[in-house]
């Protein structure tokens, strides 16, 4: 029998960067075809680099969802922005996502200026185009941005509706370098289940409390036990900085934390494909935003200055 030649595979790391709420997490989930990163309407939801893994033909796309880039005010802000730029520097290709409704403002101008120092291939992605009524304005925005930077291609997408997502995935698959895949075929994220579970709970926390939720709050998975019946017992701690914040998270009669736990447990069970027993605790840890250990738990480098 004739010898079967190995399939020529391709694999590349693609960083998605942009201002907060540009739609990076929604687009990563759409490209992967599964929920691998959390999504909320609250800005700066993404804190660390999360890698979603998409397959397109013989290509494996490692999509790096980065924190939104904005003028940092706090130590946590500085860590997030630094992490976003490190993700761009380490990637094979960089996609700049711009909310088509927002256009170019001071934050975008600053990002464009810094992108001039990035030597990788650049791709422009205008997001949320489904909610832009003035379609000619999209063409004007794209033309203006292509004058400013040498983008290899421009895409107009909606992560919410899926419009343009297949075209973007196909184009990226053709452009990533030849080489072996970095992850197994059935893996959709590089995040450990413990981390994904904590992020799911943080998402439900944010969606439930909206503006009431203190910015300086985080969730950690402190215990993970697989029981003899195949179910998983998980303990998580929500850390806040003040007692008043703890009361907000608990809610009257524990109503808020019960609703958060119920929503998180359902989604974590889907992610681990097993019955989940979830126990949430809320603790006050003053000044956790200046604690290096908390940054390591979140996958961030602790800024010394």
UniProtKB/TrEMBL annotation:
Record's keyword annotation contains Zinc: no
Statement: the UniProt record of this protein carries the keyword Cytoplasm: yes
Positions of the UniProt region annotated as G3: 65-68
Residue ranges of the region described as G2: 44-48
KH type-2 domain segment(s): 209-286
Annotated spans, G5: 157-159
Annotated region described as G1, given as residue ranges: 18-25
Pfam family, one: KH_2
Binding site for GTP: 18-25, 65-69, 127-130
Sequence ranges assigned to domain Era-type G in this UniProt record: 10-178
Domain of life according to the entry: Bacteria
InterPro entries associated with the record: G_ERA_dom, GTP-bd, GTPase_Era-like, KH_dom-like_a/b, KH_dom_type_2, KH_sf_prok-type, P-loop_NTPase, Small_GTP-bd
Quaternary structure and interacting proteins, as annotated: Monomer.
PANTHER family in alphabetical order: GTPASE ERA, GTPASE ERA, MITOCHONDRIAL
Entry protein name: GTPase Era
Gene that specifies this protein: era
């Amino acid at each position: 029998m004739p010898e079967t030649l190995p399939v020529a595979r391709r694999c590349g790391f693609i960083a998605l960067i942009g201002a907060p709420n540009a739609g990076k997490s929604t687009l990563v989930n759409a490209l992967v075809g599964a929920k691998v990163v959390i999504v909320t309407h609250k800005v700066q939801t993404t804190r660390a680099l999360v890698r979603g893994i998409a397959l397109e033909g013989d290509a494996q796309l490692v999509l790096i969802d980065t924190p939104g880039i904005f003028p940092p005010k706090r130590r946590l802000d500085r860590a997030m922005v630094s992490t976003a730029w490190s993700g761009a520097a380490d990637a094979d290709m960089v996609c700049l996502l711009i909310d088509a409704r927002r256009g170019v403002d001071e934050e975008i101008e600053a990002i464009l200026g810094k992108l001039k120092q990035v030597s990788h291939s650049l791709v422009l992605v205008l997001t949320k185009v489904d909610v832009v009524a003035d379609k000619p304005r999209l063409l004007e925005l794209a033309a203006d941005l292509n004058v400013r930077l040498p983008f290899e291609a421009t895409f107009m997408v909606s992560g919410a509706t899926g419009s343009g997502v297949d075209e973007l995935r196909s184009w990226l698959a053709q452009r990533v370098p030849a080489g072996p895949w970095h992850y197994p075929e059935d893996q959709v994220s590089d995040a450990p289940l413990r981390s994904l579970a904590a992020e799911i709970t943080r998402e439900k926390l944010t969606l439930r409390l909206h503006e009431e939720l203190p910015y300086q709050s985080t969730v950690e998975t402190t215990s993970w036990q697989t029981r003899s019946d195949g179910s998983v017992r998980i303990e998580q701690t929500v850390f806040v900085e003040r007692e008043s914040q703890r009361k907000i998270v608990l809610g009257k009669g524990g109503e808020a934390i019960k609703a958060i736990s119920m929503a998180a447990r359902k989604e974590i069970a889907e992610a681990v494909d097993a019955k989940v027993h979830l126990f949430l605790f809320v603790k006050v840890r003053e000044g956790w935003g200046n604690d290096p250990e908390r940054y390591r738990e979140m996958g961030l480098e602790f800024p010394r200055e």
